[in-house]
């Protein structure tokens, strides 16, 4: 159960990272509240996941999911640059996440 919780925590990390952009420096109330809720829920789920997963693995996966999702949504939503190198490095993060999952003793 810890891996699904960690995955959901990572998705919520993406939500709050994107929410930061939409909150415009916390000056817009609705995106600010959504961002805060996503932050809190993400941390709660991360805390639950580390009951069974090593903190180093869980934290690396959590931030990796957040980094990949935020980078991809930055491309889609905010017209951030798309280059072969950028996509390759994002792919390396995905490989790292998959690798950490594959060597984890808790599946």
UniProtKB/TrEMBL annotation:
One of its GO terms (cellular component) is plasma membrane. It is found in: Cell membrane. Gene3D superfamilies: 1.10.3730.20. It comes from the Archaea. Keywords: Cell membrane, Membrane, Transmembrane, Transmembrane helix, Transport. It holds the Pfam family Multi_Drug_Res. The chain crosses the membrane at residues 33-50, 57-78, 84-103. GO terms for molecular function: transmembrane transporter activity. It is a multi-pass membrane protein. Its main location: membrane. This is Quaternary ammonium compound-resistance protein SugE.
